[in-house]
Amino acid sequence: MTNSLRAVFLDHASLDLGDLDLTPLRQQFAELELHDQTGHRDVVGRLRGAQVAISNKVTIDAAAIAELPDLKLILVSATGTNNIDLAAARARGITVCNCQGYGTPSVAQHTLMLLLNLATRFVDYREAVRQDHWQKATQFCLLDFPIVELEGKTLGLLGHGELGSAVARLAEAFGMRVLLGALPGRPPRADRLPLAELLPQVDALTLHCPLNEHTRNLIDAEQLALMKPGAFLVNTARGGLVNEHALADALRSGHLGGAATDVLTQEPPKDGNPLLAVDIPRLIVTPHNAWGSREARQRIVVQMAENLEAWLKETPRRTVS
In this protein, which residues make up the domain named D-isomer specific 2-hydroxyacid dehydrogenase catalytic (predicted)? Predict the structure, then answer.
């Protein structure tokens, strides 16, 4: 312990499943108070008297900040900071730091895993074995579902930062050709193709861009119609990038060869979601767990400790406010 700071982690269970080493973080504080989760009504009470708040998804809004005069630093145990009122924090002189790039290997391999599942029809073949179809076959193998080789196919990437670049490298290792798409709201670049030019060329499209006013419903019915018949779509970025009703329709119509998503517009989808309908063919939905390897979660712990140490030295890093 190098100072007298008191810190409160509002939703510790969203990060640590009991498999992480919190020593890099614990040794920075005189007291680190852990709560599995925190409801909105309990935020102020739990943070009262703390100089440092740690939150993954718990909202710390302007009203809460106004009631917490001791709060000096907010550590977000994720990249997204939409749960923090950044303007209110800035007005109070509270530093907000996030974590960045921690899940690149995990999300990249998840993206390729989903693409490979679509290409090999893994889910369909696994179910065929469970339903005794192979056992009742008249020959040694079962080839009821078309299998696609990735080698020689074209992958379109929307978002070519650290994560998109990692996915591109993995795709190229499978022999795929990679094309980059232009994102709305960003300056044009010679190596980025407009969607109308990109989509008709790709055999698969993966999304790795942020959700903002420019990218919401980036892929809707019009864009899906531009894609090749039989093409694949994989989204491990944000749910709102894809119009979910339009994607469900494209799969039901048979236009797409398959789709996979690790994200939905509302998470958890307690009120239902168009993509959870049981009649949608060739769709894989995973529960926003692409980022969640133990290694990635441990990197978050290390980055939060780094962010705190830099803040103490008055040279803050990964600051968003």
Answer: 20-317
DSSP state of 114: H
pLDDT in tens, 161-202: 999 999 999 999 999 999 999 999 888 898 999 999 999 999
Q: Is the peptide bond preceding residue 188 cis, with omega within 30 degrees of 0?
A: no
How far is Cα 177 from Cα 158, in angstroms, rounded to an integer? Answer: 14
Q: Which of 90, 267, 295, 317 is catalytic?
A: 267
CATH 3.40.50.720 domain residues, the chain: 6-102+294-313, 103-285
Task: Give me the catalytic one of 238, 297, 299, 318.
Answer: 238
* Angle at alpha carbon of residue 158, lines to 55 and 228, rounded to 5°: 135
pTM: predicted TM-score of the whole model, two decimal places: 0.90
**pLDDT single digits (tens) 249-274:** 999 999 999 999 999 999 999 999 99
**84-121 pLDDT tens trace:** 999 999 999 999 999 999 999 999 999 999 999 999 99
Mean pLDDT for 6-25 is 96
Is 26 annotated in the active site?
no
Report the CATH architecture of 103-285. Answer: 3-Layer(aba) Sandwich (3.40)
Ramachandran category for residue 132: left, alpha or beta (phi over 0 → left; psi -120 to 50 → alpha): left
Q: In this structure, are residues 82 and 103 in contact, taking their beta carbons and an 8 Å threshold? A: no
The arrangement of secondary structure in 6-102+294-313, i.e. its CATH architecture, is 3-Layer(aba) Sandwich (3.40)
How does pLDDT run across 111-161, given as a tens digit for each residue?
999 999 999 999 999 999 999 999 999 999 999 999 999 999 999 999 999
How many whole angstroms separate alpha carbon 77 and alpha carbon 69?
22
**Secondary structure of 275-318 in the HEC alphabet?**
HHCCCCCCEEECCCCCCCCHHHHHHHHHHHHHHHHHHHCCCCCC
Active site residue 238: yes
